[in-house]
């Protein structure tokens, strides 16, 4: 699958447009696509994006649970991927479903370098597919309720933005905790 290229404008331009600095010719779906893109790949105004926080994470780090019974980085990657794929399937017309626990926090089948690289690649290709799907939506679709749900497509897609940002922060904390545990 071809990699999604960066949006044509910088995130600074998007923020300036939101602040009323000048006319913004972007559609709402283009803005959401930018938010998805930048909160996954970066740069973000708040710090590292999810993909940036995953750079250089080893298999050992990805599997470690340095904070009690908390999730590992690898589990967070699979979890984020699962919810990105829910959004993709919903945009493709499938019924929105809340993931059962075994899909939401799936067990790791293999725990080696190839499987870790695959998990990261699946997240990346899922994000690419979601970004591609979002820009194909007419803006009016964003205001429609997801069938059978009490939230709109806009709400769901912004949920993916927030979800990825939240888990990016968790990955950053887990990386730091791993390093601190190794040097203690």
If you had to describe this structure to a student in words, what would you say it looks like?
This protein has 184 residues and is an all-alpha fold. The protein has a single domain, classed as dinb family like domain (Four Helix Bundle (Hemerythrin (Met), subunit A)). Helices cover 59% and strands 0% of the residues. The protein contains eight helices and no strands. The protein has helices at 11-18, 28-41, 50-54, 59-63, 73-91, 101-104, 113-135, 153-183. The longest helix has 31 residues, at 153-183.
What's this entry about, in short?
Helices cover 59% and strands 0% of the residues. By secondary structure, it is mainly alpha-helical. The protein has a single domain, classed as dinb family like domain (Four Helix Bundle (Hemerythrin (Met), subunit A)).
Q: Classify the secondary structure makeup into a structural class.
A: mainly alpha
- The coarse overall form would be globular
- End-to-end C-alpha gap: 43 Å
The CATH topology annotation reads as: Four Helix Bundle (Hemerythrin (Met), subunit A)
Biggest beta sheet summary: none
- In CATH, the homologous superfamily goes by the name dinb family like domain
Counted by DSSP, the helix tally is 8
Average pLDDT confidence is: 89
The top level CATH class name? Mainly Alpha
Structure summary, number of beta strands = 0
Give the amount of beta strand, in percent. Answer: under 5%
Uncertain regions spanning at least 5 consecutive residues: 9-18
Helix content: 55-70%
Number of domains: 1
Gyration radius, to the nearest Å?
17 Å
Order of helices and strands: HHHHHHHH
Write the CATH architecture name: Up-down Bundle
């Amino acid at each position: 699958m071809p990699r999604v290229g960066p949006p044509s404008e910088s995130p600074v331009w998007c923020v300036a447009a939101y602040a009323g600095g000048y006319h913004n010719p972007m559609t709402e779906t283009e803005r959401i696509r930018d938010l998805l893109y930048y909160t996954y790949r970066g740069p973000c105004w708040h710090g590292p994006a999810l993909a940036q926080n995953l750079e250089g994470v080893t298999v050992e780090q990805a599997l470690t649970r340095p904070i009690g019974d908390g999730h590992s980085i690898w589990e967070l990657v699979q979890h984020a991927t699962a919810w990105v794929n829910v959004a993709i399937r919903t945009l493709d017309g499938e019924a929105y479903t809340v993931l059962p626990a075994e899909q939401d926090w799936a067990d790791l089948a293999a725990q080696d370098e190839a499987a870790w690289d695959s998990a990261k690649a699946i997240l990346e290709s899922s994000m690419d597919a979601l970004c591609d799907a979002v820009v194909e939506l007419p803006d009016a679709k964003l205001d429609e309720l997801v069938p059978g749900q009490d939230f709109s497509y806009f709400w769901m897609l912004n949920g993916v933005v927030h979800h990825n940002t939240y888990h990016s922060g968790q990955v950053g904390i887990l990386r730091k905790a791993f390093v601190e545990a190794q040097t203690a």
